[in-house]
Specification:
heterodimer, A: about 700 residues, alpha+beta, Alpha-Beta Plaits, five-stranded antiparallel beta sheet, 28 helices, about 50% helix, flat, disordered C terminus, B: about 290 residues, eight-stranded mixed beta sheet, 8 helices
């Protein structure tokens, strides 16, 4: 096929929110790819271009016409498709319609199932541009945004008003109407240049037409331009700008024609903590921070602007004024904050609500102090650690009352500022624990590291999770406003990294004991289940499959670390032949047992058949050996010992009918199986292991 | 020579007048934003087209700083433009208005930064932008989607300037108090500073919370009574009064965080009742402005 034509679809809008742009483009690509494939149109490549004012698909190497088809599709039996008069039934009509043919054109064909109808589909011969005129409006309609609006007299919904549609195939307009607009070959350049509409004569010229009008529509090209200009501005000073891909992406989606400005601020503001200055520059104004080769912050900033103004100095001065006001605010806040010690701010926490109906931040601080006191010995840590951690626990939330953190702009510095103030007061280790106690703050973030901060971080997260469960603020589906899942994962990651051998159940109970009032009976299990639910993510990093996680998590383990080791023991042998046999045998035992435990004692006298006696003997022996291995926490041994149960289990099921007519005998057999199960479950719940072949044998 | 404060207003009036706007005068009641003016609140409702521009004084009791802050006051002026339905070239019209007052696109970095606007008391919301000039926020630009809890059809475009902010930018002064007002050497300070101090003290220290609470209840009752009499305009006046009374109470610290939501909800309910009654009244009148296109 001759793939020589290009096509462009550009949605021209008023400035879109920067975070909406990429997801919209991805949706356009998905919708266009699927539709064109349905229409049998192939192309060499699909490029995407975007700026705040345009979302563009560019197809390289298209055929003039769609590919022809000539195929037969078998349908229902003739007796179903036609009635006794030979007229098409609804089923017959439906099938024909779905295939895009008339019922009258259906042929008949004899098959092993009987006589069926066959649709002969002949298609093709349509122009690519004609098909695109149908596909493109659908592509636009399918874009979903977090928030949408109407404009003018229209009812069409989009993130911001659509102002033009430029849609060209080779040299001709792909005509369609959407949102009260007709597509055309017209596009628009940079606002500041005030040029009228520009013609895209040939689709392949698209990027060049825009470039002439000041717009760099290719995001990769624009991103490089921004970064090069930023680097160049820095190097003129002999300085460096540290990599910041998130900020770079952000500013890249805010401009069509990037240029940079370099401004400065009064060096006396460098007395503020670095993070404060960087936050003031980055969060709101989107400036890059500038450092010297040693990494020391310089009193400079680099801003990315849209278009090149006549006199950059005017723009620089105004930007410097804005930054100055922000730094002045920050300086004022910090000066006010250090007028009283951190302890003084901590006292003010009684005025800040933690969760509706769950007390104040002061209550939380008191609980954290109690909790870390109990956790330190549980983790086997020293008294020195306890002292620092307890002090940090009482102060870690204090910065929430300070001026700087109460300011929305600097809110992201919580923890950091509290720690900064503590260090300033001459408490470096307490300060460090405070600064790190929110870590990890996002997936992939660093872990607290030091024992003091690790304990405090676990305590804080645990307290939040238990508190939220008590207030019934439990995550469901995609709703997790307090990020409890992330916090639960954080707890597990820290436990694992620090090898704190503690049972999750003990952790939950300890956290509960620090709350006032009684917990609902179910609460402990709910929280425990919730924590275990995060195991998957932790174990994924150790290449342990989900079924092994489920199988292990369903059983008792003295500590979280044991759980991991069990999982590793199971994972490493799961595919071995021996182990698979064990899993089959264990499955037979576990599946026959009633969900409720029988409260009957095993009677030796009732064991009559030799297979029963043999199994009983084996269970007693293996049980003892397993108990010793469990004591030593050697789960590879446990797994090997269980192997001796395989033969007696199979022998038992081959000869013995569990459901004996005599209820006493029946129950005794169930109790025997229950004892067998108890031994098996000391490793994992074998029923939850998934083997590929099960799909077919089910 | 940069525009004085009063020339700024005159220039905007002339420009928007040329764009076909009715130039209305301020509404004679205390309100927190130009949106409260009936020329916006009522006119954006229903199907009738309307283009209007006006200056409106705004009172935000909580924002008082005793005249000590260079750009934060409890009393300031907004310039408000409503174009209904929002025309296709509204952004270009706005950019042209900036040029008229001396802010040229080829001299400045002008940016439309996403901002979703909401007035919980008026039950109003829309999508749009904060407009930044060289990093400074100078305008709120909104496509109204709802007002008084009613979905708007057609959509109105709203442009709101903080006049003092934009004047400081144009005149290149750091503090609003240093603004050249217009006549001779009269500055903004000469006209407003003493009042700003007095009202800051009143709002934060001396307003009569007990009386205000009583008034709030009275005003709420009055809205109900007037709506029953189908006196829509007067009923709305009492919504404005209730809203300002709430703002005064809030500044005085007389309302707890939990109560706050409740008060806002009560004002919103009043606004909704009035909005619905207004649309009904216009309908009964046969939407007179429809004929004037």
């Amino acid at each position: 096929m001759n793939l020589t034509k290009d096509a462009v679809l550009e949605i021209g809008c008023e400035e879109l929110p920067s975070s909406y742009i990429r997801p919209a483009i991805d949706q356009m690509v998905a919708a266009a790819e699927a539709s064109l494939k349905d229409h049998r149109i192939t192309y060499q490549h699909l490029y995407t271009y975007y700026t705040p004012r345009r979302l563009t698909l560019f197809f390289k190497g298209l055929p003039e016409m769609q590919q022809d088809v000539n195929k037969e599709v078998t349908g229902p039996l003739v007796s179903i498709a036609f009635d006794e008069h030979g007229l098409p039934t609804r089923a017959g009509e439906g099938f024909a319609k779905a295939q895009g043919v008339s019922a009258a054109s259906l042929r008949r064909q004899m098959t092993s199932k009987g006589e069926v109808v066959v649709a002969i589909k002949k298609g093709g011969g349509r122009l690519t541009s004609e098909i695109m005129a149908e596909v493109f409006p659908e592509v636009i309609k399918k874009i979903r945004f977090p928030k949408v609006q109407r404009w003018g007299n229209g009812t069409f919904l989009f993130a911001r008003p659509i102002r033009w549609i430029c849609s060209v195939f080779s040299r001709t307009v792909i005509p369609f109407e959407i949102a009260g607009l007709y597509s055309s070959r017209e596009t628009y350049g940079l606002r500041a240049l005030k040029q009228g509409p520009l013609d895209v004569v040939e689709a392949g010229d698209y990027l060049e037409v825009l470039k002439q009008a000041g717009v760099i529509a290719d995001p990769a090209e624009r991103r490089n331009m921004v970064w090069n200009k930023v680097q160049q501005a820095a190097s003129e000073l002999g300085a460096v700008v540290p990599q910041d891909p998130d900020l770079l992406d952000d500013v890249n989606n805010l401009v069509e024609s990037p240029d940079v400005i370099m401004g400065s601020f009064d060096p006396h503001y460098l007395g503020l903590p670095d993070q404060v200055i960087v936050t003031a520059m980055r969060e709101h104004q989107k400036y890059f921070a500038v450092r010297d080769k040693e990494g020391t912050l310089l009193p400079r900033f680099i801003g990315v602007i849209n278009g090149t103004p006549k006199d950059k100095q005017v723009v620089i001065r105004a930007n410097e004024g804005v930054l100055k006001a922000r730094l002045e605010d920050a300086k004022f806040f910090v000066a006010e904050d250090i007028k009283i010690p951190l302890e003084g701010w901590a006292e003010k926490l009684s005025g800040i609500t933690w969760l509706e109906g769950m007390g104040t931040m002061a209550d939380k601080s008191i609980r954290l102090q109690k909790l870390v006191k109990k956790l330190v010995p549980l983790f086997g840590l020293s008294k020195e650690v306890a002292k620092v951690t307890e002090e940090a626990a009482g102060l870690c939330k204090a910065d929430l009352a300070t001026n700087i953190i109460r300011e929305k702009e600097f809110n992201s510095l919580q923890g950091y500022m509290g720690g900064f103030y503590a260090i300033k007061e001459g408490k470096p280790s307490v300060g460090e624990a405070i600064q790190r106690h929110y870590w990890p703050r996002f997936s992939g973030d660093k872990l607290p590291g030091t024992p003091e901060s690790a304990v405090l971080s676990i305590a804080d997260k645990l307290d939040t999770i238990v508190g939220c469960f008590r207030a019934r603020l439990i995550p469901s589906g995609s709703q997790d406003p307090f990020a409890l899942r992330r916090q639960a994962l954080g707890i597990l990651q820290i436990l694992l990294a620090n090898k704190y051998a503690v049972s999750l159940e003990d952790l939950v109970k300890t956290a509960q004991s620090c709350f006032e009032g009684k917990a609902k009976p179910k609460e402990k299990d709910e929280v425990l289940e919730f924590l275990k639910g995060r195991l998957q993510s932790v174990l994924e990093s150790k290449n342990i499959s989900y079924d092994v996680v489920n199988a292990v998590a369903a059983t008792e383990a003295p500590t979280f670390i044991d759980l991991i080791e069990k999982a590793e023991a199971v994972q490493s042998s799961k595919m071995e032949k021996d182990f698979q046999e064990l899993a089959i045998a264990a499955g037979r035992v576990l599946r026959i047992l009633p969900p409720k435990k029988l409260k009957v004692k095993l009677s030796q006298a009732l064991l009559k058949e030799s297979e029963e006696k043999d199994l009983h003997k084996a269970v007693e022996m293996v049980g003892e050996a397993v108990a010793i291995s469990l004591e030593k926490r050697d789960y590879t041994d446990v797994r090997q010992e269980l192997q001796s149960l395989v033969k007696p289990i199979h022998a038992f099921f081959e000869k013995i009918l569990v459901m004996d007519k005599n209820a006493k005998v029946k129950n005794n057999r169930l109790v025997l199986l229950q004892e067998t199960a108890d031994v098996l479950l000391s490793l994992c719940d074998f029923r939850k292991l998934v083997y590929a072949s099960e799909n077919t044998t089910k | 020579m940069a525009l004085s404060f009063q020339e700024l207003i005159l220039t905007l009036d002339q420009y928007w007048s040329r764009q076909g706007c009715v130039i209305q005068q301020p509404y004679d009641m205390e309100k927190g934003a130009g949106t409260f003016n009936p020329a916006t609140f009522f006119r954006v409702l229903g199907p009738e087209p309307y283009h209007v521009a006006y200056v409106d004084p705004c009172r935000r009791p909580k924002d008082g700083r005793y005249g000590e802050n260079p750009n934060r006051m409890q009393h300031y002026y907004q310039y408000q433009i409503i174009l209904k339905p929002s025309p296709d070239n509204m952004v270009e019209m706005y950019l042209e208005s900036l040029e008229q007052i001396g802010i040229r696109q080829d001299e400045h970095d002008i940016r439309f930064v996403e901002d979703d606007w909401e007035s919980p008391t008026l039950g109003a919301s829309g999508l749009g932008w904060q407009v930044w000039m060289d990093g400074i926020e100078i305008t709120q630009f909104t496509f109204f989607q709802t007002t008084g809890g009613l979905e708007l059809k057609p959509v109105s475009g709203e442009i709101t300037f903080g006049l003092e902010r934009i004047a400081t930018v144009i005149q290149g002064v750091d503090s609003v108090w240093d603004l050249h007002y217009g006549s001779k050497n009269i500055t903004y300070r000469d006209i407003f500073l003493q009042n700003e101090k007095a009202f800051s003290a009143f709002n934060f220290e001396h307003s009569n919370a007990k009386m205000l609470l009583r008034h709030f209840k009275d005003f709420e009752g009055e809205v109900k009574r007037l709506l029953e009499l189908k006196l829509v305009g007067p009923a709305y006046d009492y919504v404005i009064k209730a809203s300002h009374t709430f703002n005064l109470l809030d500044a005085r610290g007389a309302i707890s965080v939990a109560e706050r939501t409740n008060f806002i909800g009560r004002v919103r309910a009043m606004a909704r009742g009035v909005a619905t009654a207004y649309v009904k009244e216009r309908e009964e009148l046969g939407f007179p402005l429809m004929k004037k296109g």
